[in-house]
Sequence to fold (470 residues):
Amino acid sequence: MKTSSGRFPKWASAYFLLTMVVMAIGFYEAMTAPKEATMGNLYRVFFYHFPHTILSFVFPYLNCAAAMLYLLWRNKNPERAAKADAFAVASAELTVLYASVGLATGMLWGRAAWGIWWAWDARLTTYLLLWLLYVSYVLLRRFSATGQTAAVSAVLAIFAAIDIPICFESIRWWRTQHPAPVFGGGADSGIDPTMVSAVLWNVAAWLMWGIFILGLRYAVERRLQRKAAAASAALMSEYTLEAR
Amino acid sequence: MSYTRLVLMHLRKDLRLEWRTKDSINGMLFFSLLIVVVLAMAFDPGAHPVMTREISGGVLSIAVLFAAMTALNQSWARETQNHVLDAHRMSPAPASALFVGKALANFVFVSAVELVLAPVFAVFYNLHPLGEAWKLLVILPLGTWCLVVNGTFFAALSLRTRHRETLLPLVLLPVSMPALLALIQATTDVLTGEFEPTLWIKVLFAYAVVFTTACVLLFETILHAD
Fold:
């Protein structure tokens, strides 16, 4: 098993700097985009709300895929399975992070635009459920016994991923205050062409940031796994010495 | 031995165990009754008949759900005594038969509680359904199965954790939210008679099919988690 040199690789630093540059451009574009006709400057929170919510629907499926790979490799290739599990943790925590930012920006916007912090409308409710599902995943990891965490949480990851579309549809039938989807929501949807570049820059920036955090969390988790493996190996050798 | 016979064997064993002690049914009955009484204090069903009709579907579902959760943990605790669970793990029989048997047994217990609770509930909340009441005979068993199948599965999953009694509701509730929503909406539709519950019955049915499949396929992983 290779040991970590403990250094932050150069390409990662370069990637981080690039992310910061894209984020700065995104911020500039968001602040200089033309005022929206009805909401004025208020709508600018959209440039942060939109990327976070969209991306927090992507990470759960990375989590689900990693969980499935874990279950597939569990008995055949423990090393690869451990990597898949580390990726699953990273993507689940990222989902919680992005969904929290999405919820927070959405509530701020809702308070300013609708006058209320929260409404039990279809999209808000589904989104809250998504957040709850992944918080429960993180909690399960905290609570489960060592050595079983990965398998048990992989199963919950699959359940959560199956649950998202069912939640989405059933809540849609239940309630329908959040505006129709801005993109792909019919003939009136879409935004003014002058705002498109600001949206794209911000989506790119937060995607890059997400990937950066994902990689960082993955590396931390791998290091924790190696530490745990080394500790149990040390314990084993101690026992065998005593037995002699 | 065929799969069905294995399932029936597990089911019979669980029913017999419960018949001898009647612990979980009694516990669930009294607990759900307590919830109904506590919620009556929160809402005062006598003073607001219209509101009562609108919320009683939810109240009944919550009472049953919470009561079921207390019993679900116990249903697996039986298997851990004398290392029975380890014997199951070594057995060549398919693991999912054990799960299906246990889920069916829990379904029978929770349905029994509902059968007793529903009339008591109707009396206490001064309730008579305005819609077609026979539809409840489809809705309640379907909804109960949706909650019990995931509940049994997650109770087995929680066996592998610390604080298992605390963890079960924390993982079960978020996943069961669509089923719970459909169950509450369908019951409310029948009680108020304002809408047809057909859509929600379909949701319950789809949920039951999808999650029963997922539980059966993944139970083996849970049983051999380490």
Notes: Residues 20-32+39-180+195-243 of chain A form one domain. The two ends of chain A are 26 Å apart (CA to CA). The longest helix of chain A spans residues 193-243.
